[in-house]
Amino acid sequence: PSLKAVVLELYGTGTAPSRRRKLIGALQVAAQNNVLVVATTQCRHGGVIMDTYAVGQALLEVGVISGHDMTIEAAATKLAYLFGKYPDDPDQVRRLFSTNLRGELSPPEVYTRPFFEDSLYPSLSSSPITLQEDHS
Fold first, then answer.
1. How far is CA 17 from the centre of its chain?
2. Which of 29, 31, 34, 66 could be disulfide-bonded to 48 (CB atoms 3.0-4.6 Å)?
3. Helix, strand, or coil (residue 6)
């Protein structure tokens, strides 16, 4: 059986070593040969947002797709499931990979919002704190 997909575990929002031009070229050749290349993150929280940095943008341009906030294990399992269901249709696998099938993907606003959001981290907020008076 031929190679159908590669799952990359990248830095942060989808950044790869920027001086590895041969890596980008190899991923482009893979994509041109219908090998689905998926970028996941090694971060415990957050997700892949490919166009955050130049390297992620270059990966997008050669055909790498985002694994969003899936773990590497979830991405590999989803690919195995989709290729089992659509073995001769890599375009369908590509389309469905970014679709939440069973709760493996969070809504994008969950992992694309600013990390230090007031509602999540009130102690880090720049808003003034209002103290209640003690009426005892």
1. 16
2. 66
3. strand
Global pTM reads 0.76
CA–CA dist 47, 24 (Å, integer): 21
6: closest CA among 34, 40, 36? 36
- Residue 79: count other Cβ atoms within 10 Å of its Cβ: 19
Cβ pair 81, 104 in contact under 8 A: no
Residues written for the chain: 136
30-51 pLDDT per residue, tens: 999 999 999 998 887 778 888 7
What is d(CA 71, CA 49) in angstroms, rounded to the nearest whole number? 14
With beta carbons less than 8 A apart as the criterion, state whether 13 and 52 touch.
yes
